[in-house]
Amino acid sequence: MDTEILLEMNHIRKSFDGLSVIRDISLSVRKGEVLSIIGPSGSGKSTLLRCATLLEKMDGGELIYLGEKAAWEEDGKCVYAGKNKLKELRGNFGLVFQNFNLFPHYSVIKNIMDAPVCTAGAPKKEAKEKALKLLADLGLSDKADAYPYQLSGGQQQRVSIARALALSPKILFFDEPTSALDPELTGEVLKVISALAAEHMTMIIVTHEMQFARELSDRIIFMEQGVIQAQGTPEEIFEAQNERVREFIGKFQ
Amino acid sequence: MSTVTMLTQLGKGMISTAEIFSLTLLFSLPLGLLVSFGRMSRNRLLQAVTRFYITIMRGTPLMLQLLVVYFAPYYLFGLNLRGYRFPAIILAFSINYAAYFAEIYRGGIASMAVGQYEAAQVLGYSRLQTFFKIILPQVMKRILPSITNETITLVKDTSLAFVLAQAEMFTMAKQIAAKDTSMMPLMAAGVFYYIFNFVVAFAMERIEKAMDYYR
């Protein structure tokens, strides 16, 4: 088994207006691993993901991608790497948002191939071929020239997964990827994520889909009130002795 | 004066009106974007300066602004500029309309969902790319109806250039009406303005339609 550590987060702290949302969280993710983060609303799951993807500035802690520091602590303050370094490190990961955030004025194909061409310097022809292949893999070949508003939520989310994959990320983050979808459409998105797991894509998934997390994950983290209350294999979590974990999971069954 | 002569005279005035109109748009639309950047800047001083500028432009009559811009070089610095009349008009109109456009841009930019910026950031777009490729096209679509409004007002506002005796259509109409003691020239000018705005509204509608390919 490849044990290369792709992401390391050490002693992450984050508060909003004096309210501690993340208190001293550490985790690491190995290549090929699928990590799910579960927990009640307001437990800090999404904030943790946003810190990892550099959308939120941490108050303290260390963020390391493939051994390279994106952020670290100096004199009790969180210091971030320079602009160019961060741009380079961003290339390591992709993020799939809860509400897709596709670019509405771009067609599906342009949504997928624009970033590789404009930010990663890929040749247009190559980027287009790759985008078409991704669309084919995701069963959206006939939607290449459609605009996001013409698609269902499930289709939009699949396009946004394709958009993230087009940049060949080493890690893919999902921030509640099915929370904006009705149950009927949830399945088609989960199927795509499962297929990625089968291809050993490294993924960190914040989700409320308990059954899905249980089947797919190598490891599950249960967060509450800004700390990791429990973590382990799906079996360990779902048959946990931890009272809070049992109570939380019980609500979903 | 015969009707044909009158219409020819007004037509000449119309050319001047159209010049003021198009040059003002040409300068004030980009200038307004710059001003809106200043207004939204994190730099407090820049923010205060642009805010003051906008209040002055919106808070005083455009006619007064025209006079100030035209006469200031002479009264303040004793400069006797030849051929300054037309540039002064364009300058005054442009800085006035830029203030209004700036506020429209600002509203449009502020209405954009933060998720668009975040998606662009994660995908590696630079700040400039994010603004010009992702944000601005969507903002333009959103603010187009407000821009149309201002544009139509501008057509009518060009008549204010008469205070500097610019030979635009309104000035011509006023002169002919006084000379012939007739209301006809004024009525005809009204029809001209109406047609001008009809064309403007039609063009703006076409642009709106062209942007209708997405929601």
TrEMBL record, chain A:
<keyword id="KW-0547">Nucleotide-binding</keyword>
<dbReference type="Pfam" id="PF00005">
    <property type="entry name" value="ABC_tran"/>
</dbReference>
<dbReference type="InterPro" id="IPR003439">
    <property type="entry name" value="ABC_transporter-like_ATP-bd"/>
</dbReference>
<dbReference type="InterPro" id="IPR017871">
    <property type="entry name" value="ABC_transporter-like_CS"/>
</dbReference>
<keyword id="KW-0029">Amino-acid transport</keyword>
<dbReference type="InterPro" id="IPR027417">
    <property type="entry name" value="P-loop_NTPase"/>
</dbReference>
<dbReference type="GO" id="GO:0015424">
    <property type="term" value="F:ABC-type amino acid transporter activity"/>
</dbReference>
<dbReference type="GO" id="GO:0005886">
    <property type="term" value="C:plasma membrane"/>
</dbReference>
<keyword id="KW-0472">Membrane</keyword>
<feature type="domain" description="ABC transporter">
    <location>
        <begin position="7"/>
        <end position="250"/>
    </location>
</feature>
<protein>
    <submittedName>
        <fullName>Amino acid ABC transporter ATP-binding protein</fullName>
    </submittedName>
</protein>
<dbReference type="InterPro" id="IPR050086">
    <property type="entry name" value="MetN_ABC_transporter-like"/>
</dbReference>
<keyword id="KW-0813">Transport</keyword>
<dbReference type="GO" id="GO:0016887">
    <property type="term" value="F:ATP hydrolysis activity"/>
</dbReference>
<dbReference type="InterPro" id="IPR030679">
    <property type="entry name" value="ABC_ATPase_HisP-typ"/>
</dbReference>
<comment type="similarity">
    <text>Belongs to the ABC transporter superfamily.</text>
</comment>
<keyword id="KW-1003">Cell membrane</keyword>
<keyword id="KW-0067">ATP-binding</keyword>
<dbReference type="InterPro" id="IPR003593">
    <property type="entry name" value="AAA+_ATPase"/>
</dbReference>
<dbReference type="GO" id="GO:0005524">
    <property type="term" value="F:ATP binding"/>
</dbReference>
TrEMBL record, chain B:
<feature type="domain" description="ABC transmembrane type-1">
    <location>
        <begin position="14"/>
        <end position="204"/>
    </location>
</feature>
<protein>
    <submittedName>
        <fullName>Amino acid ABC transporter permease</fullName>
    </submittedName>
</protein>
<comment type="similarity">
    <text>Belongs to the binding-protein-dependent transport system permease family.</text>
</comment>
<dbReference type="Pfam" id="PF00528">
    <property type="entry name" value="BPD_transp_1"/>
</dbReference>
<keyword id="KW-1133">Transmembrane helix</keyword>
<feature type="transmembrane region" description="Helical">
    <location>
        <begin position="184"/>
        <end position="204"/>
    </location>
</feature>
<dbReference type="InterPro" id="IPR010065">
    <property type="entry name" value="AA_ABC_transptr_permease_3TM"/>
</dbReference>
<keyword id="KW-0029">Amino-acid transport</keyword>
<feature type="transmembrane region" description="Helical">
    <location>
        <begin position="84"/>
        <end position="102"/>
    </location>
</feature>
<dbReference type="GO" id="GO:0006865">
    <property type="term" value="P:amino acid transport"/>
</dbReference>
<dbReference type="GO" id="GO:0022857">
    <property type="term" value="F:transmembrane transporter activity"/>
</dbReference>
<dbReference type="InterPro" id="IPR000515">
    <property type="entry name" value="MetI-like"/>
</dbReference>
<dbReference type="InterPro" id="IPR035906">
    <property type="entry name" value="MetI-like_sf"/>
</dbReference>
<feature type="transmembrane region" description="Helical">
    <location>
        <begin position="52"/>
        <end position="72"/>
    </location>
</feature>
<keyword id="KW-0813">Transport</keyword>
<keyword id="KW-1003">Cell membrane</keyword>
<dbReference type="GO" id="GO:0043190">
    <property type="term" value="C:ATP-binding cassette (ABC) transporter complex"/>
</dbReference>
<keyword id="KW-0472">Membrane</keyword>
<keyword id="KW-0812">Transmembrane</keyword>
<feature type="transmembrane region" description="Helical">
    <location>
        <begin position="20"/>
        <end position="40"/>
    </location>
</feature>
<dbReference type="InterPro" id="IPR043429">
    <property type="entry name" value="ArtM/GltK/GlnP/TcyL/YhdX-like"/>
</dbReference>
